[in-house]
Amino acid sequence: MSARLARRPWKRAAAWLVFLGPLFYATYGFANWWATTRAHVPSMAFGWERQIPFWPWTIFPYWTINVFYALSLFLARSRHTLDRHALRLVTATLVACTCFILWPLHFSFGQPPVDGAPAFLFNALRGFDQPFNQAPSLHIALAVILWDWYRQFIRPLWARLVLHVWAFAICASVLTTWQHHFIDIPTGALLGLFCVWLWPLERAVSMPRAWRVTRDPQRWKLAGFYAVGAALFLAAALYGGGIALWLAWPAASLALVALNYVGFGARGFQMDGQGRMGWAARWLFAPYRLGAAVNAWLWTRKLPASVEVVPGVRLGRRPTRAEWLAAGRPRLVSLCAELQLPSGVPHARCVPLL
């Protein structure tokens, strides 16, 4: 145990912390200052949000993210995972602060007076925070990244439950401390998912290194269709407002699909060799995957599940588990990059292709 601890990249973790701390306060502070120079900073809130209670004690889980943020760097077992985790934190900070500068928003109603122990933390928060820097919530993005980081170290079921409750408490506290409006939460979660997807902890190639611009005109054509679809969904979200803002999720999903066809390739879907997709990719591409599943069903619903093309080899659609069992439990080889193989199928292999 002591030898393994000695091999951990302590100095590199300290160096990352020395870099990340000033980066956060410099970029976050600049975005706050920039918002104060604007003649008008809009707000985006729903009427029902005024019914959310103000619970001063939830400032405690709100602040715990700072401790878990700093501690996370020193838990890395290798330089590779440390660098990937730190790059997730860097990406979340830079993307969020860029959004704060390009379209600043402000929290539309002030906090009531606070007494007792929570007052100290609220005063400390107001020392560097202003009612700006709203969407996407950097707090939520970091909570998603840290949740994914810590769960790799936790095995007991009860400890995982504690982790889930802690992450939920941090995310809920941005509302009950009146720091953020609701729109900041899903946009922050989307940013966190993007960072997890962009920098996988496994020994896989990161998305930036996987980028290769395609020379295939058919891929460019398909990328164009998906980009137009993304733009239409985004326009509908912004024009419709309210519940229509959820259409920004399929807009982001289709935009990433377009990027897969342009440069990321099948790697962008992060399907492993057993036909299972990484959790962040599953959520990022969920609207597209739903459409792909419906499309596949429409095309193949009247066709047999598979046909024998040569003795012992059958070609067909992605089977359900029942169809796989009815076929005699054959070995499956999937060429699908977007849709997972059914769970519980042993010896399945996936060679994902666009």
Describe the structure.
- There is one protein chain.
- With 354 residues, the protein is mostly helical.
- The chain folds into three domains: 2-203, no CATH class; 217-295, no CATH class; 301-353, no CATH class.
- Helices cover 56% and strands 5% of the residues.
- It contains 14 helices and four strands.
- It has helices spanning 2-6, 10-36, 59-72, 79-102, 117-126, 138-150, 157-176, 184-198, 207-210, 217-240, 248-264, 279-284, 286-300, 321-326, and strands at 306-310, 313-316, 333-336, 349-353.
- Strands 1-2 form a two-stranded antiparallel ribbon. Strands 3-4 form a two-stranded parallel ribbon.
- Strand 1 and strand 2 form a beta hairpin.
- The mean pLDDT is 89.
- This is Phosphatase.
- The chain crosses the membrane at residues 12-34, 54-74, 86-105, 132-150, 157-176, 182-201, 222-240, 246-266.
- Keywords: Membrane, Transmembrane, Transmembrane helix.
> What is the residue-mean pLDDT, rounded to a whole number?
89
The structural domain count equals 3
> pLDDT below 50 for ≥5 consecutive residues: which ranges?
none
Shape: globular
Sequence of strands across the biggest β-sheet: 1-2
Main sheet characteristics: 2 strands, antiparallel
Gyration radius (Cα, Å) is: 23 Å
Helix coverage percent of residues? 55-70%
Protein name: Phosphatase
Transmembrane segments: 12-34, 54-74, 86-105, 132-150, 157-176, 182-201, 222-240, 246-266
Keywords: Membrane, Transmembrane, Transmembrane helix
Which terms would index this structure?
4 strands; globular; membrane; Phosphatase; 354 residues; 3 domains; mainly alpha; two-stranded parallel ribbon; two-stranded antiparallel ribbon; 14 helices
